[in-house]
Amino acid sequence: MAKIVGYIAASLDGQIVDGDGSLDWLFKYDDMDLGEHDYRRFITHIRTVVMGRGTYNFIAHESSPWAYAEQRVIVVTSQPLDEPKGPLEVRDDIDALIAELRGLDDGDVWMLGGGRLQMAFLERGALDEIEIYIIPELLGSGQPLFPLAGFRASPVLISATAMDKGCVRLHYRF
After folding, report:
1. How far apart (Å, rounded) are the C-alpha atoms in residues 168 and 132?
2. What is the tens place of the pLDDT at every residue in 19-46?
3. Which of 4, 6, 2 is closest to 115 using CA atoms?
């Protein structure tokens, strides 16, 4: 059975993008040494990437080539995607998608991007673990890591590690 995981960076004040919808605040940490937790190592264990429409639109409008050619990509949206940037599948039923993902046995599933889709999975008990990289930046506005939706949980801390440039890695199990 596939493990469904999150791997995401957030500012110290809990934002994942700034008030302009930009990740520029995060890009200045691209040379940070994450050692064994580096994204390039993380992605080698991922067979399926799941993202919402907002994350897909953000990635699709970047000039860089499609980064997920080695993974199955599923975009959760109720609207068709015109001229998809890379090979992908579309789903609009989260409950059916979770059942499908739980049936996979070819690698882990990464919930890429914003907190709304991750929250939908959390509310259904379908996010197994999350790695959150707290970046020492205060943005003052933006999109929160987890939207305030009334959902409550008490995840179990697996580890907390001080990283390069004042970053802290928090690893939780739900």
Report:
1. 8
2. 999 999 999 999 888 888 888 899 999 9
3. 6
Neighbours of 119 (CB within 10 A): 18
Task: Map out the domains of the chain as residue ranges.
Answer: 4-173
Contacts (Cβ under 8 Å, ≥6 apart) of 56: 75, 77, 81, 88
pLDDT at res. 132:
96
Write down the pTM of the prediction: 0.93
At the second CATH level, the architecture of 4-173 is 3-Layer(aba) Sandwich (3.40)
Say how far apart CA 126 and CA 120 lie, in whole Å: 9
Q: How far apart are CA 104 and CA 6, in angstroms?
A: 17
d(CA 112, CA 98): 15
Q: Which of 38, 41, 59 is nearest to 112 (CA)?
A: 59
Q: Cα separation of 35 and 170, whole Å?
A: 15
**Each residue's pLDDT tens digit, 16-26:** 999 999 999 99
Half-sphere exposure of 92 (CA within 13 A, CB side): 5
